[in-house]
Amino acid sequence: MQSNLAYERPRQRMVSEQLLARGVNDERVLDAMLTVPRHLFVDSALASRAYHDCALPIGSGQTISQPYMVARMSQLLELQGHERVLEIGTGCGYQTAVLSRLCRRVYSIERIQPLHDRARKNLRAARHANVMLKCADGRLGWEDYAPYDAIIVTAGGFASDVWLQQLKPGGVLLLPEGEGGDHRLVKRRKQANGYTEEYLDACTFVPLLEGVNHY
After folding, report:
1. Could you tell me the residue ranges of all domains in the chain?
2. Looking at 60, 65, 74, 108, which residue is catalytic?
């Protein structure tokens, strides 16, 4: 495997050509994307494509989102550094790692056991300590540590009522809403009486599913 040093230039190009060029301008997000070693979160056979402008397979029928979408969603959360964030859909742990550099603590749920195990290994290798992982049905949220300042969902579907319940007043829920691979990012902010919502980018995500898959 190439040394980590060999990936620095591709990572810099990713930030300048894919992120800055498309309007990602939050300095903290750009720094996180420049720092987190994306190649550690994909199979070694795909490491040479880790910083390309595309999603990549990570096994179990799931994907790691393209760098732009990770950065875009991270920026939309408007994190300042003190927050506690719930992530629904850990996947291989890359978005988790980026978030961990932007907030105080990340609580992340993955329903597929092999991916949960892989994410734990990846995050340990990348030395991200302010993360708690759980293998469970993400639609149920994580009541033990609620309420959260923000909840980010990395699978496409429709919001669970539980998520808004587990948000702090003023907190943000960000998810790709829709079905059949036809999704749109929706940002909801919890208010005293309901929530405000903003419809954003069209996108495509793997489907949000119920239950836990241990195999």
Report:
1. 4-203
2. 65
